[in-house]
Amino acid sequence: MIQRKIRRSSQERSDLFDGLPDDILLSILCKLSSTARCPSDFISILLTCKRLNRLGLHPLVLSKSGSKAFAIGAKNWSEQAHGFMKRCVAAGSVEACYTLGMIRFYCLQNRGSGASLMAKAAIRSHAQSLYSLAVIQFNGSGGSKNSKDLRAGVALCGRAAYLGHVDAIRELGHCLQDGYGVRPNAAEGRRLLVQAAARELASVLRAVAPSALHALTWQLQNKKPQRNSNLSLLSEFGLNNLNATSMEAHPVNRFLTEWFGSFDPGSGKGLRMCSNSGCGRPETRRNEFRRCSACGAVNYCSRACQAQDWKMRHKGECSPVDPLVVDLAGADPLIVNLDGDDDGIGDDRTGEAGGDGGGPVE
Ligand SMILES: [Zn+2]
Ligand SMILES: [Zn+2]
Predict the structure, then answer these.
(1) What's the gap in Å between 211 CA and the centre of ligand 1?
(2) How many angstroms separate the alpha carbon of residue 340 from the centre of ligand 2?
(3) CB of 362 closer than 8 Å to CB of 290
(4) Can you give the pLDDT at residue 22?
């Protein structure tokens, strides 16, 4: 009697679920795939039952998948993971295009396919893809030093900056200050560097505790940053230690860092990783990245990475070979190009970091 009751009530429950129309479930699953905090959030739904498996793999659901749905560790990379990403790419997910594009370009060294996947996302105004393609153009990644296309890099950076990508705004600011791939405009460059720092500050504030927010509000009310200061906005307000933890890297940067942390990026070819720990980009040929002009001990894929690493770590570690290279106000030294060509990012850049706390680069 009791067993019959239990059976009847479980039948009623399954009837309720079965009674839900597919389009309602699809809309819930779309929301889930776009907001999943990790791959298992989404995968566990697929394993629940045949119906959720069928609907979860519907192209509409896959097309909405967010970046964290692909946040797998490099050690978990498999043909199945590759197949799942390809399926999401086919469904039209821009995040899948970008993530798989980066993995193919850098990790699997399938440059053409990787770049075209990123281009597919960039056409649909995916800021990360636009910025990553800009880095590839600035460095001539995947080709020779003659493959660098600075104008294309600036154009891509400009589009990503317009969409609010902080690293792109910072990179564009440095380009304008240094006349790198674009006519120099120091005032506009400075304005962009300040804007990048302000946006970074805003993202820091969203992540810090309310007590820190109160302290900052007090400081903002009682202290005006100096216009021509060489310090970043964060350090102007005494917040230079906050950004280390609150600026969250894109999952694919963590994948790259892990991938090249466990496998030798150069396989003995003398290739180096970007010294900014949150980046993970490796060189695709020797001396592709620019190095710190003061110590020569660190290398960066971009000015944005150099500026970020300068604030978070390298400023305290850099020991100049020639102390005159870095000015005493604490400006970031330049990065110099090791490819042997003078493309404007090298020796003609001075220690003036434009207030963004960049760091020396050759
Ligand atoms: Zn980098
Ligand atoms: Zn240095």
Answers:
(1) 32
(2) 19
(3) yes
(4) 85
